[in-house]
Design a protein that fits this description.
The strands form five sheets. Strands 3-2-1-4-5 form a five-stranded parallel beta sheet. A four-stranded antiparallel beta sheet has the order 6-9-7-8, sandwiched between helices. The two termini are 36 Å apart. The protein has three domains: 2-97, Rossmann fold, CATH 3.40.50; 104-185, ATP-grasp fold, A domain (Dna Ligase, domain 1, 2-Layer Sandwich); 196-230, no CATH class. The protein is of the alpha/beta class. It is built from seven helices and 15 strands. The protein is globular, with a radius of gyration of 20 Å.
Length: 239
């Protein structure tokens, strides 16, 4: 199999390392530093990974069998829809409703609508309503910017004052470029992530893993993207 891997971060580096163990060739775009760590892995000069039409042409030229987009923003921009006509298989969703693409508010409402257990939450698109709600609660909260924020759009304030300051930065100062937020009840405990591949008929689950959310050792510092996950998870079992 010949694979076109899109992205230049740590996620794509890990994917390239694993793919090269079984794929005939792995091509990485853009050529931004993701290491070509094996003879069958190579970086390809390409100006813009958001220029989907040129990526389609590149995939045809390289005769790839699979296109694997890594970065969240490329996925949210619906790269799979552009690749629908060429023969290449794109490992991601196609033609999902716009709300599915990176909006936490949409996801939370979907979860509630279909009775999937979740914490108490409220969605807000105006600062004044969010500020007043935050002032009315007497428990710790988690504040999440609804759209993509490079893994940095979630804060766990420990005091009401800190929560109000973070909310103002998100909704008024538009720290992450978005205004809509989710305010959730804070829960403390163990967490695991289980992802699955699905083709619309069958699914295959990946092993359970645990996220490194904080930037420093000992679960200290701000929550940030790109810190990776680890497994197996010792507290998880089949039951």
């Amino acid at each position: 199999m010949r694979v076109l891997l899109i992205g230049k971060g740590g996620r794509e580096h890990a994917l390239a390392w694993k793919l090269c163990q079984t794929a005939q060739r792995v091509f990485i775009v853009p050529n931004g530093g993701t290491a070509a760590s094996a003879p069958n892995v190579s970086n390809v000069e390409h100006a813009d990974m958001h220029d989907f039409e040129s990526l389609v042409a590149l995939a045809r030229t390289l005769a790839v069998d699979l296109v694997l987009p890594g970065p969240d923003d490329v996925v949210v921009e619906a790269i799979a829809d552009v690749f629908e006509q060429p023969a290449s298989l794109v490992l991601h969703h196609r033609k999902l409703p716009q709300g599915w693409r990176g909006q936490k508010t949409f996801a939370k409402d979907f979860i509630r609508r279909y009775g999937i257990p979740t914490v108490e939450y409220r969605n807000f698109d105006t600062y004044e309503h969010a500020r007043d709600y935050l002032s009315s609660v007497n428990h710790r909260v988690v504040i999440k910017v609804s759209g993509l924020a490079a893994g940095k759009g979630v804060v766990l304030p420990e005091t009401q004052e800190e929560a109000q300051r973070e909310l103002h930065e998100m909704m008024v100062d538009k720290k992450f470029g978005h205004q809509e937020v989710v305010i959730e009840e804070f829960l403390s405990g163990d967490e695991i992530s289980i992802l699955a591949f699905c083709d619309g008929h069958t699914f295959r689950s990946l092993p359970p893993v645990r996220d490194h959310k904080r930037i420093f050792d000992g679960s200290k510092g701000p929550i940030t993207g790109g810190m990776g996950v680890y497994g197996p998870v010792d507290f998880y079992h089949a039951n």
